[in-house]
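Our preliminary data section would be incomplete without showing what the modeling component actually yields. Below, a chain of 441 amino acids is followed by its predicted structure, encoded as tokens that our downstream tools consume directly.
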Amino acid sequence: METSPSEKKDTQVQTETQEGTSTVQVDEEKLAEWLKKIYPRVKKELDDNVNSRAFKGYKLSTDSSDANCRLVQTVNVASQVKDAEIGSHVSALSWNSTNQTLAVSCTYKHNSWCYHEGIVAIYSLDRDDNLPETPKIKLTTESCVTELKFHSVLPAIIAAGLFSGGIIIWNVQKEEEQVVAKVDGHGDGITQLSWIIDINSTKNVLLASSGLDGLLSVWNFSLNESSLIVKERHQIRSQLMPKHSESQEDTVKKVTRGVTCFDFSKYSPEIFVIGAEGGLVVQCCLLGTRKLQGSKDDAPLLDSVFKYYEQHKGEVNSIKFSPNRKEMFMTSGSDSEIRIYVIDQEEPAQVIFLKQPLLDVSWVPYEERVICGCGKNGVIEIFNLLRGKTIENTTKEKVKSEIMTQIEINKTKSNIVAVGTDNGQIQMWRVPWTLFGNLSL
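Predicted structure:
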């Protein structure tokens, strides 16, 4: 068999040299100066993009007719409480920073002083995202626990506020000597706790506490030194020339109002909003404060009130900034109203009228169109934020109706929702928020 040789040809690429071209001269010092000038803005935009939660938790939607809140588990926390047969209710819930551990406190109903032993039960999710029947850790206090809050960064650090006004911080990673710090925080019961950013040093985390003594206190916390030291106190006072109020007359006459709830802005950490006795809704600022009489250099007493909003006709039981919109916050009150405020407007931008008041409300992470709450209806109540109406029939389950006192959404897996009840139980629900969001369209 013969083979014929193949013919090969070489192809050359010719480049044409242009005449008259010159080398571009670059002033490297000016270039460096310009890059240095624009770098902070470019870095901010890149960081915002990296940290954006706009599409976090995003799931492809399916048939909205499948929207259903499912009760998957009930755990009896009250059984851990001494003399539980008297009756105790869940007073606080808190997920830790890993969102794998849930802290629960139970308290009794009080007519006067508290003589009960308080309890905090610590549970961890298993592989199926369920809780064990018994807590892995049980902490006790000398008075009922009214508020709980895990540290925003350190997953083993948790703060508790007591009916007596005391504050305790534990390190639950330790088997012994778990108490890190213990102080007499307020002259009356603690209503709320929150770990906040130090505006003077963003790497530092402070503890904020509120009480019915009319104070919001900010604390320096040191784990290494096992210390909790008050940094400043903010006193909430009535408006000098209040508008017409339907609150009780004795409350209206009070100069100092007890703080029932508060929240700090995640976008502007110097700004916080407060709900106070008599339905008062107030915007405050850590900057530009005024020292009040009785102030001390080591723990100044400050007037930080910046703006008064149209107040509720009853008590404010919840106030929370939107996680999605920096200019928006929400309140709920005993007057059976949920109000949506825009930070610069005194009147609410939206009011949702309820058949009966809710005991707790919450924004839903990554969902702008729906909010939720719980109360005497015994189911998780979901609301269309744009229309200002309730989404009906949120669950198809046949569930025994129990008064719900607290609701806490898991920040990592937002479909996992813990609910505390009036008879001392935790209910673990699965909620397809995206589908309910589609119902809002």
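The radius of gyration is 28 Å. The first helix runs from residue 28 to 51. Preliminary results of this kind motivate Aim 1 of the renewal.
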